[in-house]
């Protein structure tokens, strides 16, 4: 019969919770699943904050944004998590305005000032990384793989887990690994050190194009998240067993490479380029003047001690094998 009041309202503009779903789906189609998850989480929290009631995008006010920030803080969420939700909500609002412009007196996020929590996870020391390299977990294949992946990440400019497990033989170009970061799309070229070659050959398999036995071609994003979670849980065990870190994760290895680079006085611009950062405007101006040999030289300086330990370790394993044939 008559059109409901809700349907009349929907004709007047976009509704936020509904639009969040559309933006999240759009991000997934672009392969940006982590951003899609973030959008959905931010939208869900705002929906609950509004009493499980959807509102039009054009009705969002600065007061609501401020109260939503206080609501998230009261839930005990970490500062950086709150920042991610607020910046995601702002991005969604901006996209909605670009899609279907509407009248507004002030941008509801105009007073939003996000200050990131600069608390940094504690990196490993060079001695602790060496302890990982000398560790022998031959009776625990899961611990061995997690340790090897962590060391490979360290030797490859702190390569993120997502990029590392997606590496295939096609990424090997002569004596270098060339890949595009999943997060930023920036091309990274890493000289393959002796220690990295050792890891690659150790897990070489004719049955898969992937360099490491983690990823598979048909893996979904949710399955990838499970892989990362399992890897970090196993690394946590490694850190605790070796007494080097109570919460060792793949990110700790990435930060450890950067920290070790600074300890060895590697220029910040070199570190930024090696890590594939895009948001450091001060150092970005130097990037075009950096040659690949400079990056390779910096990485050799950082990782040579680990490469030597791994080489000596392999020699001992080979020697034990030869000895066993004569027993």
From TrEMBL:
Q: Which residues form the Tyr recombinase domain?
A: 119-300
Q: Does the keyword Ubl conjugation belong to this entry? A: no
Which keywords are on file for this protein? Answer: DNA integration, DNA recombination, DNA-binding
Domain Core-binding (CB): residue ranges: 14-97
The UniProt record lists the keyword Translocase: no
What domain of life does the UniProt record list for this protein's source?
A: Bacteria
Q: Quote any Pfam family the record assigns.
A: Phage_int_SAM_5
Q: Extract the InterPro entries matched here.
A: CB (IPR044068), DNA_brk_join_enz (IPR011010), Integrase-like_cat_sf (IPR013762), Integrase_catalytic (IPR002104), Integrase_recombinase_N (IPR010998), SAM-like_dom (IPR025269), Tyrosine_recombinase_XerCD (IPR050090)
User: Which SUPFAM superfamilies does its entry note?
Assistant: DNA breaking-rejoining enzymes
Kindly give the PANTHER family that the UniProt entry links to this protein. PHAGE INTEGRASE-RELATED, PROPHAGE INTEGRASE INTD-RELATED
Which family is this protein grouped under? Answer: Belongs to the 'phage' integrase family.
Q: Protein name, please?
A: Integrase
Q: What is the lineage of its organism?
A: Bacteria, Pseudomonadati, Bacteroidota, Bacteroidia, Bacteroidales
């Amino acid at each position: 019969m008559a059109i409901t009041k809700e349907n009349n309202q929907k004709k007047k503009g976009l509704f936020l919770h509904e639009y969040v779903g559309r933006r999240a789906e759009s991000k997934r189609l672009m392969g940006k699943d982590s951003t899609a998850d973030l959008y959905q989480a931010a939208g869900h929290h705002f929906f609950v904050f509004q009493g499980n009631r959807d509102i039009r995008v054009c009705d969002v006010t600065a007061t609501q944004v401020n109260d939503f920030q206080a609501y998230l803080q009261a839930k005990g969420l970490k500062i950086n998590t709150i920042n991610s939700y607020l910046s995601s909500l702002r991005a969604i609002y901006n996209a909605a305005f670009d899609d279907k412009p509407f009248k507004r007196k002030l941008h509801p996020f105009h007073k939003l000032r996000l200050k990131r929590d600069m608390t940094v996870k504690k990196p490993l020391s060079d001695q602790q990384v060496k302890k990982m390299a000398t560790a022998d977990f031959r009776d625990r294949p899961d611990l061995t793989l997690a340790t090897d992946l962590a060391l490979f990440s360290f030797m490859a400019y702190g390569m993120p887990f997502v990029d590392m497990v997606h590496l295939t033989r096609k990424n090997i170009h002569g004596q270098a690994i060339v890949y595009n970061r999943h997060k930023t799309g920036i091309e990274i070229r890493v000289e393959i050190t002796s220690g990295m070659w050792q890891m690659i050959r150790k897990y070489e398999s004719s049955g898969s194009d992937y360099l490491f036995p983690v990823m598979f071609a048909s893996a979904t994003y949710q399955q990838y998240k499970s892989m990362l979670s399992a890897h970090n849980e196993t690394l946590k065990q490694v850190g605790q067993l070796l007494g080097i870190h109570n919460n060792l994760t793949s990110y700790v290895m990435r930060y450890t490479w950067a920290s070790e680079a600074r300890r060895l006085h590697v220029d910040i611009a070199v570190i930024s380029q090696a890590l594939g950062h895009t948001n450091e405007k001060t150092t970005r101006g130097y990037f075009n003047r950096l040659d690949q040999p400079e990056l390779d030289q910096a990485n050799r300086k950082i990782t040579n001690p680990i490469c030597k330990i791994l080489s000596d370790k392999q020699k001992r394993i080979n020697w034990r094998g030869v000895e066993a044939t004569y027993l």
